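Data card: per-record layout.
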Amino acid sequence: MSDIRPHLINGRWVHGGEAVENRNPSDLSDLIGLYAAGTADDVAQAASAASAAQPAWFAAGPQARADLLDRVAAGIEARATEIATMLAREEGKILPEARAELRRSAQIFRFFAGEALRVTGEALASVRPGVDIEVTREPVGVVGLITPWNFPAAIPAWKVAPALAFGNAVVLKPAELVPGTAHLLAQVIQDAGCPAGVFNLVMGSGRVVGQAIVEAPEIAALSFTGSVPTGRAIAATAIQRMKKLQLEMGGRNPMLVMDDADLDQAVEACLNGAFYSTGQRCTASSRLIVQAGIHDAFVDRLLRAMLALRVGPALDPASQVGPVVSGAQLEGNLGYVALARAEGCEVIGGERLDGPAEGFYQRPALFLGAHNGMRCAREEIFGPCAAVIRVDDFDQAVTVANDSDFGLSAGICTTSLRQAREFRRRARAGMIMTNLPTAGVDYHVPFGGTKGSSYGPREQGRHAVEFYTTVKTSYCLAG
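The structure for this 479-residue chain is written out next.
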């Protein structure tokens, strides 16, 4: 029992009866550890503890919340190497990317330490003489946070930090594939002096723990990042219980490459957006929409750069692309490679690779000759695969870019100010990139999309206050 990493419930480390193995996708012989698999009862205890602790946490005031978040940021920085190594081992992200993610996580906590002190209200004149009106923000109460495996430090950070900053209590469920990073983050939060019950960690499956979080009566709001089917299922259940919702559910992000683009710049942006982090980013550039005049030169240059990428273990300094996160994810990726061939694409790369140890390695892939009607160009793959779609002109490129069930991020490579401006205006996506990868965002600005990508208020930056607080309007008769 003592070898199992426990949950954190009401300020205590709580062992469960079951455990799951956490293995390294770079080397399946590397058992990272055993982690507690939560039950509905564990969630009930955590939600009850959070509900009891939340009023005092809000009443403690913004300075206490700001100070805690600042200590958490310092704690992440002090343990950055340890946590980044864990992240790379369990998720497969190469170590430089893992280190960058830990830096970002600390920045997020420090940013929201400041935001805790900047919650504003309004004083308004009433239409009735002698009546004063105040509009204030208050926490929603207890927030359930369900996070994915692809950013096991940054996404929990950008949900936990604003939740705590604005006076809420938290029940966090990390993805079952990556409990280790969240467990270390929970240690940092606990060591920073978080009051008992204000932050709770319950690990385990979405089917058991996630469902219990969605159904827990004490939990007033749910923030979820993950797949579209799971997000829709959460929404259907949550709306029956009148819970506030924030959903981030993926993308099939277009990158337009126009005839006038700087070729070197376009290749680098697409190489980064499509294949870094093993393509396992909801903002990845998975549809490369290329104008006919530059198409052949762009494809030739991108192919050479793609095939030169070194795929290997996450902790190997020579690796540029790590393994796929799991066997199931790899099989899904390989299925899309086969589908692309069956749909008529010329597929370059995409095969499973042998590594120095048994792991889930895949060569990055381009699907050439794709069109927007193909499943391999419409459905989110979430792996190192990108479809190349040839178009005749700018208007066709924009039409193809917008012809998607998703609308998270969209990019354009062009030297034309007119085309860049027009694309920003016409693109149906929440985030627009010009001569930059579609992946890679700042922590102090809104994150989110349109259509099937997002639902509810935006994440990150000052806009996070919209989800983690509720507005109260107060009237008072003076005199």
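Known properties of this structure: The CA atoms of residues 274 and 331 lie 19 Å apart. The longest strand covers residues 27-37.

See the next section for split statistics.
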